[in-house]
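Colleagues,

For the teaching module next term, I've prepared a clean inverse folding example: a structure given as tokens, and then the sequence designed for it. I'd like students to try predicting residues themselves before seeing the answer, so please don't circulate the second half yet.
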């Protein structure tokens, strides 16, 4: 099994039975039930490199990029989808109007991305829903396809691993998926690390190869929307 550039195993679909030995998952569902995978969209940042504008509200093909990123998770069938807002929360909320997302405000967004991860995962953990895993996506990555998210979920269902990241041409990108057993650790992360350390240090981690350059394409400058 080849490795990605960070040393994680790199797995390509279709996912066979041989991957099942990697899982440390505690099975609580019957075989007929598919896991329930939620989505967390991080949309609280300050867009410091984008100038005076909020990049999440910049448009691509007539649609705010944060709305496009949220639709990707919804179109992939994730349920529920939590959107974490912070900087210009009201404007970002307006951009998501009409979408079936749960909104949570991160008042400490200026401390780094990890604070938004904590807010989103805590919302899922405290919701009372029977959620098996969560896909964490970035609001400034509007070019990820729903099929890529579906591939991550399929890899999780096939027990490729319990901490998964999409990878394009052998290079790790976003989004990432974490089994619920990591939720407590994700709530404890600090600074701007997010779940990166968990992904790199877990013995149940893998990268999932996709043919989607969008997993490596974020928006930092206006030219990135071209």
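(Answer key — instructors only)
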């Amino acid at each position: 099994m080849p490795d990605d550039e960070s040393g994680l195993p790199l797995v390509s679909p279709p996912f066979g039975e041989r991957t099942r030995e990697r899982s440390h998952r505690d099975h609580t569902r019957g075989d007929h039930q598919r896991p329930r995978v939620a989505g967390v969209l991080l949309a609280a940042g300050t867009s410091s490199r984008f100038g005076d504008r909020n990049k999440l509200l910049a448009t691509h093909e007539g649609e705010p990029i944060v709305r496009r990123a949220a639709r990707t998770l919804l179109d992939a069938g994730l349920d529920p989808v939590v959107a974490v807002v912070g900087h210009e929360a009201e404007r970002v909320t307006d951009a998501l109007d009409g979408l079936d997302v749960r909104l949570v405000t991160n008042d400490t967004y200026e401390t780094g991305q990890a604070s938004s991860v904590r807010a989103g995962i805590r919302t899922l953990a405290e919701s009372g829903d029977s959620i098996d895993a969560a896909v964490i996506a970035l609001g400034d990555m509007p070019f990820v396809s729903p099929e890529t998210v579906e591939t991550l979920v399929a890899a999780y269902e096939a027990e490729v691993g319990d901490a998964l990241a999409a990878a394009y041409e052998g290079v790790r990108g976003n989004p990432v998926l974490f089994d619920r057993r990591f939720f407590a650790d994700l709530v404890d992360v600090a600074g701007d690390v997010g779940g990166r350390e968990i992904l790199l240090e877990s013995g149940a981690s893998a990268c999932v190869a996709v043919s989607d350059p969008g997993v490596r394409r974020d928006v930092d400058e206006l030219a990135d929307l071209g």
